[in-house]
Each structure stands twice: as structure tokens, then as C-alpha cells.
Amino acid sequence: MLKFRTINVDRDRELVLTFRRDSFVVSFGNGNDFHEEEYLEWLKEKQNENSTNFVLVLEEEAYIGQLELSIRQYDEKYIGYVHLYYLIPDKRGKGLGSELNTYAENFFKRHGVSEYHLRVSPTNTSALSFYRKLGLTVIGKELDGKVIRMRGQVSG
């Protein structure tokens, strides 16, 4: 069973940078557009908001992933938003992503939203396949086609 621990930017700096940088490589083929200091500042700002939940994922006391969630407004309603689902390479494709999604949906339920969105690179075929398996549907392309916005329904 996975455990989730709230990120402390100062303590977890190197780990969150490593995980986020790798997510850029997986999504876009390189980390050229990843700006470490901007990301750390954004994390610090967001971690103090009540409508966010940024956590590290542990399995048997080893850090294996990261999850970044928030509640935001979209088209005049509040939705859940997944900024990041991340698992280290050797933990991908083993069913653990479903546990991350369950954690995310529980966070969204506690905040009273029934819909959540995320954006994914169109070249990240593994992620697209996973999101479709979860029942997410494509809303459309954004950022000049660099990403696809997808929508999911919070179950139960």
C-alpha cells in the first residue's frame, strides 16, 4: 500500500526537482523547458493554499512518486486539477497509477467537485492510454497543440 506525505519544499527540494524534471523528459522528450527556480517558487506559493494537495508517494519507505492536485475555476465552475501524476520509471505500468488516481479523486470529493482535468503531452502515449483507461476524455488541444486537456468524473 502506498503512503502519501506532504511536500516540504525546503526539505524535499532535490527530490521534487528530480521527479518534475523527469516528468518533462517523459512528456516532451527533454527538460529544456523546465525551470527549477520558477517551479520551486510556484510550489512554495501553492503549498500554502487550502485548495491544494502536493504530496510525495512512498512505497515501503522509499520515495517512488509525486502528486500535485488543486481546486481551480474553469468555465465558471470549480473543478479538480491534476498538475502532476508521477511515478519513477521502474514503478510505471504496475497498477500504482490507479492508487494515485484514487487518492486524487478522494481529495476532489472532499472539496465537493465532481469533475477534474489534467493536461498531457500528445507524445506521451503511455500517459494518454492510462488516462483513457481511467475514463478521461479529451476536451481539446491547448498551448498551440503542445498539450491536450482531458476531463474525468469523480466516481462515487
TrEMBL record:
Q: Which InterPro entries match?
A: Acyl_CoA_acyltransferase, GNAT_dom
Question: Which segments does the entry list as coiled coil?
Answer: none
Superkingdom in the source lineage: Bacteria
Q: Tell me the Pfam families matching this sequence.
A: Acetyltransf_1 (PF00583)
Q: Which PROSITE patterns match?
A: GNAT
List residues of the N-acetyltransferase domain: 2-155
Q: What is the protein's name according to its record?
A: GNAT family N-acetyltransferase
Q: Which organism is it from?
A: Virgibacillus halodenitrificans
